[in-house]
Amino acid sequence: MTEPRFFVDAWDPAYGTSFEASAGGPAAPSSAQVDPDVELPATDWRAIGARRDVPAPDVVLLVDGVRRIDASVWTAEEDGASFPGIAASYAAGVVRCDLERGVAELAGARVGRGLFTASPSAQDVVAGRIHYPVHRVGGAGELSKLPAAVQGPLTALEVAVSDAARVDGDLLVVDGPLRGRRQLPRTLGYIKTQHSQYLDARLTAVVTGLASGQRSPVFRLGTAWGGYSWYLRLPVAGGAPWAGVVRVECSTELTPAEAIGLADLSLVTLPRFASTPYKDPRAPQNLIPIAGLERRLRGLLGDARLLHRVLIAAARGIRR
To answer: Residue 21: pLDDT above 60?
Structure first.
């Protein structure tokens, strides 16, 4: 009898797993329409290695954002109704990596705060220099859905810091899906956790069979956001089938040739930023500059306990 094979995900359990199973399991297919024939016909899919004639860009910008819920709140309306809300802090920043000089530095960072609620009567919370402007959400404003409302302002903040740091010929790497940033030139979305499986079993076998430093052919997703996409395996020493695999995406407004060019560029750029297990519990997917940026941004959010006390004091003042 053949012994069953099993793998231990390299990530620290506190961070989840590098491939997150949906309710139907890791093999549950996505409902998105997929065109696998962008770069190669599906029948000819194979692993693609780095091209020697593709140099890495001189400057790579990596942008990321962090968010934190400082407090959950409730409003009391005149008609007796009540609405939930969250007071959240968020920050976005850019790391500028000069590959020619071997230097990485913070190129910009901004902090935002907000009170997210569907309450029609909610007002901005102001306590000294601390300001939580109201972001009114649609619908019933269920508490479970409010954290997602922070993503819009956070994305806008990421775009603002990115625009301020860009130079001609750079490559911008966004940690996470591109979402509303698809209009940015020479920009890649970097998805380090795989929630869905977009490809059929035969094409998925090409992805899970990638060696370190190889990528899949480019395909196109017909999701609401659309876009070209490909998988890439970062440097990793064995492990589970999806170990070290990330999905990269770029704008659907590009031509197929331009998307393939960015895929080749990603293969000579991203692996050099891969983290190692003894330094990062989400190695190798959590890129080294991104990990450092996240730590810096969380520090900029301010002391959570102090902000919580400030919000409590502000609420008591409002009630008086």
So the answer is: no
Give the range among 208-222, 233-247, 259-273 with minimum mean pLDDT. 233-247
| Among candidate residues 60, 77, 67, the one with its CA nearest the CA of residue 287 | 60
Backbone angles phi, psi at 132, to 5 degrees: -115, 90
**Strand duo 103-117 + 134-136: pairing:** parallel
Q: Over the chain, what is the mean pLDDT?
A: 87
What is the separation of C-alpha 129 from the centre of its chain, rounded to a whole number of angstroms?
A: 30
Alpha helices in the chain (DSSP H): 146-149, 151-165, 201-208, 256-269, 288-300, 304-319
DSSP lists the bridge partners of residue 277 as none
Q: Which residues contact 39 (CB under 8 A, 6 or more apart)?
A: 217, 218, 219, 256, 260, 263
What is the per-residue pLDDT for 212? 95
Q: How confident is the model at residue 78 (pLDDT cuts 50, 70, 90)?
A: confident
User: Per-residue DSSP letters for 206-269?
Assistant: HHHTPPTTEEPPPEEE-SSS-EEEEEEEPS--S-STTTTEEEEEE-TTS-HHHHHHHHHHHHHH
List Cβ neighbours of 71 (8 Å cut-off, separation of 6 or more): 86, 87, 307, 308, 311, 312
Instruction: Locate 86 and state its tokens.
Output: 């969250």
Q: Taking the model in full, what pTM does it have?
A: 0.85
